[in-house]
Amino acid sequence: MKTLAPILLMAGWILGVSCKEPDSDAFTTQLPPNVVIILTDDQGWGDLSHSGNTNLSTPNIDHLATQGVSFDRFYVQPVCSPTRAELLTGRYHLRSGVYGTSSGEERLDLDEVTLADVFKAAGYATGAFGKWHSGMQYPYHPNGRGFDEFYGFCSGHWGDYFSPMLEHNGQLVKGNGFLVDDLTERAMGFIEQNQNQPFLLFLPLNTPHSPMQVPDRWWDKFQDKDLTLTLPLKKGEEITFTKAALAMCENIDWNVGRLVKKIDELNLSENTIIIYLSDNGPNSFRWNGGMKGRKGSTDEGGVRTPFFIQWKGTLSAGKEISQIAGSIDLLPTLVDLTGITPLSTKPLDGKSLAPLILEDDQTWEDRIIFNHWNGNTSVRTQNFRLDKDGSLFYMVSDPSQIKAVNEKYPTVTQQLLAAKTAWEEDMEMEREEGERPFLLGHPDAVYTQLPARDGIPHGNIQRSNRFPNDSYFTDWTSTTDSITWNVEVLGEGEYLVEAYYTCTDVDVGAEVLLEIGTSSLEFRIEHPHDPPIRGMENDRVERQESYVKDFKPMTLGTIKLSQGRTSVTMKALHIPGNQVMDLRLLLFTKNQ
After folding, report:
1. DSSP, res 527
2. Hey, which of 37, 107, 161, 302 would disulfide with 297, CB 3.0 to 4.6 Å?
3. Residue spans in the chain of domains classed CATH 2.60.120.260
């Protein structure tokens, strides 16, 4: 293992500190280490062969563990956006305004400093490719949170994984092939483009989150496979869903292999920190090491994730760390490893894991990590978990949380109950009351999306699905119906407005009014666009989320916006057919 000297040298480069060059022709200036963070979506701790799952093979991900450092007990939050908030800020998600996964509750408060902000300020090129899920409208958008480059989607989930509509730095584009493969290609291009300067790459992949879509190459292996590890019948495992999830995980592994190979080919492996983790527990009941709980649960199985960190030539290969750690630790750890100066003046909840990673810190003190979702809080120490109901479990001998030990450890029980109460009170004090409008027309943004996800339907109008993240509005059948968005206009000026819509031949000719504050425009739907509902043809199991359609942009006209709080309202003036249209989103483009 290398000493800390190279890290201090890198810190000097970042901070502009003069480092006298040694009298040696062999001396070469080494750039600060690159950072690659791979975050998967709904992949459980048990969804790797490294964890002992014989149902699948993940050699490339396993290799990150055997060639790097692995944490045996690493904790995230039970669902997507809270974990992302903690990874980006080093602070518990409730402090940063993240209370949910849609309807604006996934947005990270604008006064929070992100990991990308820190690295960008230190001279790093920054790129994110995949599922953002921390806000859509700029400056909640990744381009407003420190990432120079973004390709992917900002929503909580996506309804199509094969060449779907995505965005590139705010501009809507069409994807290229299977989404995880596409995101990885873009990430490799970013690495190649920035190989001669330090870079931060965030790769938040969208699988194995549903819908359960995966190319035949991966599905064919599992479709008729007899799984060796399954749950008892009473546990409710859906075997076909499990097979689809495992196929998606093997596709992730293939893409991790491609990414690491690219880093090796560019001779960057000894100057690149690679981190691998998931955002929560598995999205179904399947083998997960016997742990209790799944995604959405604050029990062990809902919040424990793999966590591997590789830095060839610097970190000891195959080292395993038993101390508990969590997503709140990522930012302070990377700041410490790279020598970057932190920007935030807010206190962090996480702590640097560098002493454990670089050394064998014998003075590391026990700590408490809190897991929270949907009003439920559990508390984890090195040896115990206090669950949401106040039951205490000794996790060393009872990782499945079968037998409560409150009576055996009354002092521990009271201490953790008190810590839980204090933490919940602290989080409640952090919460800011009042509505947060969706932001429209930030001066630094060319494009602003107002998707159906963020709108409110009135009258007969319905969402295409009860899960709003990838939904659209339909059943717009009356002139008394309307759709509204509560917004704050940040940049005065003129904006071109487009609607992504579908409309049958019979319904062409509807006349619609768009009102924003004191400005308005009227438009008529002139052309039919009636693609079929799809998605089911690529689903390996029936989905719960909305099916999708190929929505087409229709220019509505130009509207002048004034700064301030207002509402965006759409209502029909005349409906010659059965309904107005199905609406996926409004896109505002600032006139330059």
Report:
1. S
2. 302
3. 438-590
Give per-residue pLDDT as tens, 456-492: 999 999 999 999 999 999 999 999 999 999 999 999 9
Q: In the prediction, which pLDDT does 103 show?
A: 86
Indicate the helix (H) or strand (E) that contains 272. Answer: strand 272-278
Q: In what order do the strands lie in the sheet with 34-41?
A: 171-174, 165-168, 149-153, 125-131, 199-208, 34-41, 272-278, 307-310, 69-71, 319-321
Distance, in Å, from the CA atom of 139 to the CA atom of 380, rounded to the nearest integer, reads: 34
Instruction: Report how far Cα 459 is from the mean position of its chain's Cα atoms.
Output: 33
Q: Compute the distance between CA of residue 510 and CA of residue 253 in angstroms, rounded to an integer.
A: 49
pLDDT score for 537: 96
Nearest Cα neighbor of 70 from 426, 279, 310, 382 is 310
| Cis amide bond preceding 211, omega within 30 | yes
With a threshold of 0.90, does the pTM exceed it?
Answer: yes
Instruction: Tell me what pLDDT residue 435 has.
Output: 83
> How far apart, in whole angstroms, are the C-alpha atoms of residue 504 and residue 203?
39
Helix (H) or strand (E) holding 326: strand 325-326
Nearest partner of 278 among 302, 247, 251, judged by Cα: 302
Residue 531 pLDDT exceeds 90 = yes
Q: Are 486 and 438 in contact (CB under 8 A)?
A: yes
3-state secondary structure string, 14-73? HHCCCCCCCCCCCCCCCCCCEEEEEEEECCCCCCCHHHCCCCCCCHHHHHHHHCCEEECC
Residue type, 272: T
Q: Quick one: tokens of 57?
A: 């093979």
Query: Is residue 483 within 8 Å of 570, Cβ to Cβ?
Result: yes
Which of 78-82, 98-102, 304-308, 415-419 is the least confident region?
98-102
C-alpha distance from residue 100 to each of 97, 141, 320, 330 (Å): 9, 17, 33, 21
Cα 513 off chain centre by: 36
- Which string of DSSP letters, residue by residue, matches 115-148? HHHHHHHTT-EEEEEEE--S-SSTTSSGGGTT-S
> Residue type at 570?
M
Q: Distance between CA 108 and CA 144 in Å, rounded?
A: 11
Reply yes or no: is the peptide bond before residue 204 cis, omega within 30 of 0. no
Q: Which of 289, 322, 301 has the alpha carbon at shortest distance from 385?
A: 301
- 139 burial (CB, 10 Å; 0-12 / 13-18 / 19+) is middle
Residue listed under structure tokens 């590890």: 229
**What pLDDT digit, counting tens, does each position of 12-54 carry?**
333 332 233 333 333 345 789 999 999 999 999 999 999 999 9
Q: Which residues, 6+ apart, have CB-to-CB distance to 75 below 8 Å?
A: 303, 304, 305, 324, 325, 326, 327, 369, 371, 380
**pLDDT tens across 127-151, in order?**
999 999 999 999 999 999 999 999 9
Residue intervals in the chain for CATH 3.40.720.10: 5-358
Rg over CA atoms, the chain: 25
Q: What value, to the nearest 5°, has the Cα angle with vertex 294 and ends 289 and 295?
A: 135
Do residues 121 and 145 touch, judged by C-beta distance below 8 A?
no
CATH 2.60.120.260 fits 438-590, yes or no: yes
Domain made up of 5-358: CATH architecture: 3-Layer(aba) Sandwich (3.40)
